[in-house]
Structures are given as structure tokens and as C-alpha cells.
Amino acid sequence: MLAVLPGGEAIAEYPGDEPYPSRMPLGWMGGRPLHLVAAYDAETATCIVVTAYEPSASFWAADFKTRRAV
């Protein structure tokens, strides 16, 4: 799962998140898509994984990068 952080493709950036900016990379594990949301504390050089989940095809396009209109 943590391999998604350095090797995943950032599909969303959240620079205004508090207390730290975050991003959502898309990675693949065993052929299955995985989204992470991770925040970065630059002061301590600490990465905080907020959540990780397998995106649903109901809410995401086939590339798992684009949210579907609901």
C-alpha cells in the first residue's frame, strides 16, 4: 500500500487542507486500483496517510482518475 505514495500518480491536490496540505495518488496493487489521501508536514518531514480505499466504479470513470457526475 505504501508503495502508492512515491510511485502513484497524483490525481488530486488539496493545498488548502489543514493542518497540512494533502494529495490523492492513484496506484495499483495486484491489478486493483487504490486511492490514498496523504498529508505532508514539511516542518517535520512527516507523511500522514489519512485514508486508503479501493475506488468504486460507481463513482469513478474507468481510469479511476476522474470522478463521475452524480
Could you characterize the architecture of this molecule?
Helix content is 6%, strand content 46%. It is mainly β. The chain has a domain at 4-45. The protein has a four-stranded antiparallel sheet with strand order 1-2-3-4. It is globular.
Strand order of the largest sheet: 1-2-3-4
Stretches with pLDDT under 50, minimum 5 residues: none
Largest sheet: 4 strands, antiparallel
Give the rounded overall mean pLDDT. 92
Based on helices, strands and strand pairing, what is the structural class?
mainly beta
What is the count of DSSP helices, taking H or I runs of 4+ residues?
1
- Beta-strand percentage? over 45%
Q: What is the ordering of alpha helices and beta strands? A: HEEEE
* Spatial separation of the terminal alpha carbons: 28 Å
Key descriptive features of the protein:
4 strands; 4-stranded antiparallel beta sheet; 70 residues; mainly beta; single chain
